[in-house]
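User: Before I run my own analysis I want an independent prediction to cross-check against. Here's the chain; please return only the structure tokens and, at the end, one sentence I can use as a sanity check.
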Amino acid sequence: MKFPSNTTIEQLIKALKDGISSGKINAYFGSPADSHKIQLFETAFGVKLPGSYKTFLTHFNGGFIADSEADNLILIDEFEEAKNISTRILSIEELIESYESLSIDNWKIRQSWEGFYPYLPFCIKSENEKLIFIDQTMPNESSVYFALHDEPARDWEIVFDGFTDFLANYILSNGQPEYSVKSEILKAEDLLVTLEAKFDEKNDPEAIVKRNSAYLELFPNDALSYTLRGNAYFDLHQYENALNDFNKSIEINPKSAFAYHNRGKMLLSLEKSRAALIDMDTACRLKPGDPYYLVGRADAFYALNRMEEALADCNRAIELDEYEILAYMTRYKIYLYQGEGYKAEADNDKIDELLADE
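Assistant: Structure tokens:
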């Protein structure tokens, strides 16, 4: 049996269903995925999956075709081991977990990367090697790359033209797809210039609100996402929404110095300096010796005209990190207020030097 080159994803799904129902294919696939969860994933992480893979998930939410060895393991209740020795297609839940883990580690991506993490694992081979898509930005669907652990992304090879091509091979090979390197190779890293152009979207406050709202639907107790969305609301001048998010973040994680600091920064901008100082001081107590939080407290002291305390925090921040530009900026203001023109000029020169080095 062989599928014609123009076989659609819908036809392949029907063939898979027919094979399973007739007993010709011994498969263990999950119930259809929630299409809303697929959409949430794309929104939360700023990426796009190939349409054919999304169609597949809405019929089979991940799973594998079992060979005789895997089937024998299943018969003795060793399902996880059977899954691990099989080439398995990831469910949307597994993809989210795997993608987030890879993105946190910046797996196979340069440290200077500023776009959305672009590598989307959708299939795990029995040797734990990955088949991946590249974030869907091109007119045609992403090719399938064989992402070997020991090789950099520039050396990954295209092994299937897309998910439909992969699935046809997967069905015909009874779950043991045969890989062949395509003659026309577009390296994974060749697409990154286009993808990095999405950086502006990454920093747009409305987009940040949208992404973190989706993420919070997936993970409702993620304190950091509330803080990040609160910052975006603050940038949009939606102060009540921002305050609600900061409060929720602190409720979930009362030891989050970052949440206290950002709530304090908003309060400071609203000229609620005393309340801001309480939050900034709490952040410093939670993260003692962190120059970033010391500068935040210095700003609150400055707003309350407590210059000596503000100066002490700035000096301490600079002792801890001589490149902490925010400390020089706040100390510059303090020196100007105190009439210390020579010292203020020296700090201004330092600020220019640090900005030039960025």
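Sanity check: The mean pLDDT is 92.
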